[in-house]
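task queued by scheduler; priority normal; single chain, no ligands, no partner chains; default sampling; output format set to structure tokens
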Amino acid sequence: MRITRYFFCILMSAQLLFALKDDRAIVEKIDKNRYRIEQLILDAEQQLIEIPAKINMSKGLIEVLLCTPKGKVHESLLVTPVRPLVLQTALMTMGYIPLNNPGGQKVTPASFSIEIELDGKRFGAGKLLWNQQLDQPVSDIPWTFVGSPIYPTGELAAEFEQTLIATYNLSCILANGLETRHDDTVYRVNETTVPPKGTTARIFIQPINEEKQPP
């Protein structure tokens, strides 16, 4: 079963990489353990994904943690040049299967931690959010690899909304793993911790548990 699961990940990663149509090299090897897929960096040994981003909002309600400039920028905390397709490819290359998968496999949800680096300091993404229901900062959120459905053409549904990570139920790659995902009025920007719009940031994504999904 484990071999079958891994073969499925490799097969789907290959399909997604094929969809990354570009004149330049799709995957670039940086060193022994690190690879670059467009602007995303994947560290195979550390099981760590690194994404460049910028602060997009300094106040207001949010439904999205991270999108591209073509996405829901009016309610996204951060923006990045990295496409949803690239993030899904990296996660599957690491050996994880999304809940939304073409084979319809029942999989154990894979949870990830997300940290944000600002001015050389890294902290949980939740520190940039404010829970309006509790009227307090957000503790760390487990982010679930829901993944995006893949159309027969090889396109991801998330490519149309250009959403990578969402706090509310949207077509995305990583989703808020708490029940608060069902309410689009829960989260707003934590104005006490978020720097001005345009501030450079880096996002670090890593599995919460070291083990891959069980067979």
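post-processing summary
- Residues 2-207 form one domain.
- The longest strand covers residues 48-55.
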